Amino acid sequence: MQSRPILKKNRVVILLSGRHAGKKAVVLKCYDQGTTSRKFGCALVVGVERAPRKVTKSMSKSKILRQTRMKTFIKCVNYSHILPTRFV
Hints:
Helix content: under 10%
GO molecular function, one term: structural constituent of ribosome
Domain KOW: 9-34
Keywords: Ribonucleoprotein, Ribosomal protein
Number of helices: 1
Strand order of the largest sheet: 4-3-2-1-5
Protein name: Large ribosomal subunit protein eL27
Family: Belongs to the eukaryotic ribosomal protein eL27 family.
């Protein structure tokens, strides 16, 4: 029986270490053999660093613009630093 890879494209993962620890991300590409600069298995992930915040009626337009701004990140992460979830 052939085992299927757990980490594959579009898999939702949780980052375990570093600046983005605890953040959710989505796998874009897997490098099982590593790359020339990284000699270990890694995955290219993209995630949301800062999500939009709650907006109320009493807020001004400039404050609403600040509150609804999102920030994303893209990073190549070692397989041992990510926790795969059941979501694809």
